[in-house]
Amino acid sequence: MIDRMQGMLLRAVTALTWAVKRKRGGMMLANGVAEGEHDSSRTYLSSAAITTKNLLYKQGSSGAEYIEKCDASSIPLGTVDDLCAAADTYVTVKLLGKGPTKKMVAAGAISAGAAVYAAANGKVASSGTYAVGVALTAASGDGDEIEVADCHPSTSTGMLATLFTNANQVLISNGAANSAVALDVPASNIVGRSASGGLTALTPAQVLTVLGMAKKTLAAGTFTATSTSTTQTMTATGATTGDVVVATVHTPNTSEYVTRAYVSASDTVTFVLSDAPAVTTKINYAVLQ
What is the dihedral of CA 72, 74, 77, 83, to 10 degrees? Predict the structure, then answer.
């Protein structure tokens, strides 16, 4: 009878212990470390006493279930707002990029709105390797506590950044799938793809070709006025209406200028001048088609 009662009592205590150790997003095993999936926090063992709240912690060197203060060159897991007097104490880590905003401890002055980075001794700074969020409040100096809109740790010198070797580059996919290369884009060029080849920096002339607007020079030279009429005509073999004519008066010290230049009929270019020209007036022209 006594053995039966002891067995029932043991099962009841075991069930109660199991229920108490269940946690949101995971389950506490016999060792006290949360297993399974987690939402915004996770339980770890401290590697040392924790005497300051809201510092950043990283994976501990003693094992996967341990945490220790983060430094400027390590990837942080999150913040801890628990205090504990000794190592091997269970604490809750508030995971970065999850849940509400977090309090953090500044290593120096930080402006509100500035990006914050992991720094030495679990603190954050206005520069560094691993960004952990944006400061919502300002810090005037070392030890000040600030509110941070946190994010998953990211590095400004990560994989994408290392692909850029110069200024004025863009990242493109060119060639093999799932690969990226940096492309230099010179001044007055744009990125595009012509009829053959891959993405490249296109010159204005190449862009016109892609758009079907490229022009070739049919005729170019200098025309001398044949009369004093404001309308002058010349022959340009092959010219058709719709071709573009560019023209300007070449003779210096004259008041007249070209008001209109166009192909008026097949093989005929017409120039309209602002004033009656002299028979020595010269007009530079180009017929584009």
Answer: -60
Q: pLDDT by residue (tens digit) across 98-108?
A: 999 999 999 99
Secondary structure element (H or E) that encloses residue 204, with its range: helix 204-210
CA 93 – CA 77 distance, rounded (Å): 8
So what's the pLDDT on residue 146? 98
The dihedrals phi and psi of 232, each to the nearest 5 degrees, come to -120, 145
What token pair was written down for 135? 């400061």
- For residue 120, what is the DSSP state? G
Residue 286, both tokens? 């180009």
The pLDDT of residue 252 is above 70: no
Whole-number Å distance between alpha carbons of 185 and 168: 6
- Report pLDDT for 171: 85
Whats the size of the chain, residue-wise? 289
**Residue 133 backbone dihedrals phi, psi, to 5 degrees:** 155, -165
DSSP per position, 213-247: ----EEEEEEEE-SSS-SEEEEE-TT--TT-EEEE
d(CA 144, CA 106): 5
pTM: 0.49
DSSP states of 147-174: EEEEEEEEETTSHHHHT--SSSEEEE--
Give the integer Cα–Cα distance in Å for 286 and 289.
10
Residue type, position 170, single letter: V
